[in-house]
Structures are given as structure tokens and as C-alpha cells.
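Input record (one chain):
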Amino acid sequence: MYDIETLYEAKSVDDACRALAEDPQSMVIAGGTDVLVKVRGGKFAGAHLVSIHELHDELDGVRLLDDGTVWIGPITWFHHVTTSEIIQKTVPTLGEACDTPGGPQLRVSGTIGGNVCNAATSADSASTLFAYGALLDVKSTRGERTIPIEEWYAGPGRSTKERDEVLVGIRIPRDHYEGFTGHYFKYGKRRALEIATMGCCCLVKLSEDKKTINDIRLAFGVAGPTPMRALNAENAVRGMDVAEAAEKIGELAQADTNPRDSWRASKEFRLQLIKEMSRRSLIEAARKGGADI
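The corresponding structure, as predicted from the sequence alone:
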């Protein structure tokens, strides 16, 4: 049973911000694939919901801005992110990641903004947005601000977005993706309808001869309480030959991460996944960039 006390359908972003400001118990709902599960489970008993589901003109779609920035509306379905021509030409690894949550039904109802706002370390878009250095624009009756994704996560399932703020845009600047090729690797016990046991995204920028790692970004979900970058590992392999970097990246990434034991996997198993997935993701990202490895 869904214990919902009130449901207000916002007519605009400003209207949603007003409704959230006026009711201190209210919370945003879009696709509902996360929120409604929690409501049904009793976590948000007597929920006061403000729906932004119909705000397509303001919050839906993918655009390429004049400066090359990729803009993604927060209520854009996972499927529409994956199939967007703009995404495929600019940040295709994000499209790959958005093709992995749940099954086909979820991917045409779940939204990328909800995936971010849920703030779960296992979210399939999280590690890839982390690797791309996404900028998250939020709005409230107090005004607007931008939160870099590195500052978004406050802990397991918690973000630095205030309750009365609405996520109004996800931006990936041109210099965060140009020249990079990437690979997203999700590990689970089955290929669909599965929460990630580990998620790994690797982006690489190769030298002109395709033999050297000029730049790299390696990000994880479920390798710690929040999504994270393996910054020391990245720094260590920049300038290395691709094959040498692939050989070393796994152990370096293990030293950067801190997975936990859970009923789904042990810490030791997750550390082994980090080692192997780092290597495989780097190799696949480099191959997409033209490396012969």
C-alpha cells in the first residue's frame, strides 16, 4: 500500500519550488521508481509529494549548448539518454551506463535526475557522471546554485541538495569529455534487474600515436559509501604506456578505495572486482580510442 497523504502536480519549476518551500514535509517525485518503492516500504509514511513529472518543457531532453556543454534534463528517461544522438556523439559512455539499470520497463520510467538525487553509491549513472565531472544545477525559492558532482554526495543515500531544492539540469562541459573514450563496467549476479555489486567507469585520452595515457579518469560505485574517483591511481598512470598502465591500474585502484562487507558481497570480493574491473575498463576504453592492446 502506498501511504501518500498529499500529491501536488507542479505546473512549472518555480511552482514546484514554491510548493516545496511552503510544506516542510514535502519531497520531489518524478518517475517514482525510487520514491514509490520507499513509500511502499514505509520509509516515507504519510508522504507529501510534489510531482515534476509533467515539466517536460523545462526539465526533459538532451541539448548541446553553444559552448559544447552537454545539458541533460533531470526528468529524462534512462532510455532517452541512451538513445540520444547528442549523447552518442559526445558522452557515449554515459549512454552505456544508462542502458544498465533494471529492465526495459524501468528505463522508460526511471529518470537520470532521480538516479542522482537518490544518492545511492550503486546508482548506474553515478560513477560515469563522476568520471565526466558533471555539474548539477539546483533551484529553490532562494535562488539557483551549481554543485559539482564531487561535492554532491554527503554520505550513503544523502546529497548536499537541500530538501526544498529541485535539480534542474545536469551539465557536462566540453573540456570534460572532448578527446576521451570510455567504458562502463557493471558487475552483478545477473545481466538485468540487478543492483550493481560494483560499477566502474574509465575514461582515457591517448597520445597521438595511441600508445600512451595522456589523461585518465577512473570512477567507481559501491567502492565506498559514495561514488568516488581513484585519484591517486589516475595520477600514477598518466604518461604511462597503455599496456603498463593496464597492468598496474588494478592494485593502484584497490589502494584508493574502501568497499564494505554486505549481504551482497564481501569486502575482499569487491576489492578483487575493483582490481579486475579497473584493468578491463582501461583496456576497453583505450581500444575505443584506437590503442592496439
